[in-house]
Amino acid sequence: PGCYISNLSSYQTSLHALFLSLHLMLFSCISLSSLSCLTPSPNPPPWVQIVEASQVDPQTEQILAEAYSLSGHVDHLTQVMGLHPHYLESFLRSQFYLLRMDGPLPLHCRHYIAIMAAARHQCSFLVSLHVREFYRMGMCLDWLKGLQYAPQRLRNLNEINKILAHRPWLITKEHIQNLVKTGEHSWSLAELVHAVVILAHFHSLASFVFGSGINPQVDPQHANGFQSVYISDYCTCDLASDHHLDRDLSSTSPVTTDSVSELEALMDRMKRLQEEREEDEASQEEMATRFEKEKKESLLVGSGDMKDEVMPTSKVSRFVEDATFGYQHFARHGEDNPPTFRAQDYSWEDHGFSLVNRLYSDIGLLLDDKFRTACDLTYYNMASHEDVDTTMLRRALFNYVHCMYGIRYDDYDYGEVNQLLERSLKVYIKTVTCYPERTTRRMYDSYWCQFRHSEKVHVNLLLMEARMQAELLYTLRAITRYMT
């Protein structure tokens, strides 16, 4: 991963030119306020980590044009993702189709489901975006008073919403049956798949928002003429509070010998693991043992920091029922645990893709492109090193998330996870994935001190897509079992 500078002075100011400049970081409006909260020093600031401009395909240009015309600005989420323009295009196509194109669910219901999903993690930033969509459509505004004002059919999604957000391995075919066989409030399978994809999309997107420190406010000095983000009374965002980002957001960390040696040590471990892989592959039994060991060890990662912490309530809590229901580790001590989800028994490529694409036409293609883009994305760089194959590192990040969710790949050696991901990074991954609202600036700064901001954003893209795919795998497997 990694991004490099392009010359921002060549930006044109016309709207048409702005859309064609997507690969120059979307309209040159990446504001200091949106990213400075998490940009680690001494790396170059994010506005000098932008890929060279290239032509945006017409469909993406149309999506961006509509999004801009509706709000008069490009939100900070889009700006931060724009550090990786190729991924951003895939993300925008998928989200646009999910929320605006023809599909089983009415448009206003889609946005309300997005609100329900984001509220599970107290993500005011995302909730506010879709509350504004409700105001724009002028429909069912009473629903915004709280979940109890929504129709029973939507409220019935609460159970699957909370389980997907915190413990997706608990989803069973009975949950599916309860939703599709509830009389006047029943869901068709096509509608349910549409709703589930929206839920998983916004659960994982909340992880990205908190993990990347997305700031909803725009500094007028750096707004470049774009309108400031309006936050309605329903959803005040507190991302910049002490709870989320620690106290001194302007502090910087000098380059240290330790951080330099950390980078060199990671490079050496990658090289050694590659050599060992070529010389002698571990047996299936050994790889299974290593998975179980990593799964159990992940139980202890960050457990002391998270224990018995009570999240403060906020205005988005009105969209949440059973707020005390939260993440619990897949492999909890002293309890009967669900069996490991073996990817060869039910994988996205062989099973989930075809089912979701059959029940909700074309969404499987868009999701598959997004998953692949995030996993394959590379600039062959690591911090100051060039011509580096980062495949091993990217797969370790993706598979560690699935490991925490009890998903195992038989062809993967989980010993690589322990070799490549140090404890501080594991704490960050677990927090962003399982408790995103508890992510702090200290966690962000504690790992990969020599890496660029764009590289850490890439980490968050991988975590987001791994989480979304895990949620979908459990749900689609449950739907398959219901159908058979």
Unreliable sequence segments: 1-55, 217-257
Biggest sheet strand line-up = 1-4
Total individual domains? 1
Question: So what's the overall shape?
Answer: globular
- Please report which band the strand proportion falls in: under 5%, 5-15%, 15-25%, 25-35%, 35-45% or over 45%: under 5%
Most strands sheet: 2 strands, parallel
User: Could you tell me the mean pLDDT?
Assistant: 77
By DSSP, the count of extended strands is 4
The count of helical stretches stands at 22
Q: Roughly how many Å is the radius of gyration? A: 22 Å
Percent helix: 40-55%
The succession of helices and strands, N to C, reads: HHHHHHHHHHHHHHHEHHEEHEHHHH
Structural class: mainly alpha
| Euclidean distance between termini CA atoms | 42 Å
Sequence-ordered SSE layout with sheet pairings:
Blueprint: H1 15-20, H2 32-35, H3 58-71, H4 76-81, H5 85-100, H6 107-119, H7 124-137, H8 152-155, H9 158-166, H10 173-180, H11 189-212, H12 242-245, H13 257-279, H14 284-300, H15 303-306, E1 341-342, H16 348-359, H17 363-376, E2 381-382, E3 385-386, H18 391-404, E4 407-408, H19 415-420, H20 423-434, H21 441-445, H22 453-483
Helix pairs in contact: 3-5, 5-17, 6-7, 6-11, 9-11, 10-22, 11-20, 11-22, 16-17, 16-22, 17-22, 18-22
